[in-house]
Task: inverse folding
């Protein structure tokens, strides 16, 4: 399937939904961190495997992967470039991770909670807008080259098109960034776009 061409109204609606979701995520993260958090979605676009490789350039990253359950099937991936994952851990726990060593159990669980908050807020907002039930599974963490991980998801039938949601967030005025990749099954993507078109 080729990447869908969204009408301007559909793209604007989907971007607005994602911004609402990130607003909820910012509130939850603020409570978790005890610090001010702001999150914005400046860009949303469809990408395929080729576009993914060009954008990410095989960078090392931490990926938090959740299955989407309910009316929409597929996956959602919160992708943090390695320097941003380290920064978030330091901001949350108060101390930087040990250089060159794997994350500790506490550091892993901290990142999983951040990914769970971001993914859940995005799916909740999308589900409310589309009047659909979208539920996240328990997140799993994978580290490595971002392009390899996302390409494998596409190869295993998770979906042929990916909605890439850029996120820019600041924690106590320290800028971080990441991407959320929504990878719906083809039939689910069609249903989502159809629902957006009827709003």
Result:
């Amino acid at each position: 399937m080729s990447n869908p061409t969204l009408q301007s109204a559909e793209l604007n609606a989907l971007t607005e939904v994602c911004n609402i979701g990130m607003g909820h995520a910012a509130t939850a993260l603020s409570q978790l961190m005890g610090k001010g958090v702001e999150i914005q979605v400046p860009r949303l676009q469809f990408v395929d495997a080729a576009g993914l490789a060009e954008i990410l350039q095989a960078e090392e990253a931490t990926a938090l992967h959740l299955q989407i359950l309910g009316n929409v099937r597929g996956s959602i991936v919160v992708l943090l470039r390695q320097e941003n994952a380290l920064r978030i851990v330091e901001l949350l726990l108060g101390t930087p991770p040990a250089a060159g060593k794997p994350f500790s159990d506490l550091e892993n669980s901290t990142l999983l909670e951040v990914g769970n908050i971001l993914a859940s807020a995005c799916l909740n907002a999308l589900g409310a807008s589309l009047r659909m039930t979208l539920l996240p599974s328990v997140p799993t963490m994978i580290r490595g080259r971002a392009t390899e991980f996302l390409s494998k998801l596409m190869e295993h039938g998770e979906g042929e098109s990916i909605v890439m949601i850029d996120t820019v967030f600041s924690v106590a005025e320290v800028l971080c960034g990441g991407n959320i990749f929504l990878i719906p099954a083809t039939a689910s993507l069609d249903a989502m776009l159809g629902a957006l078109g009827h709003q």
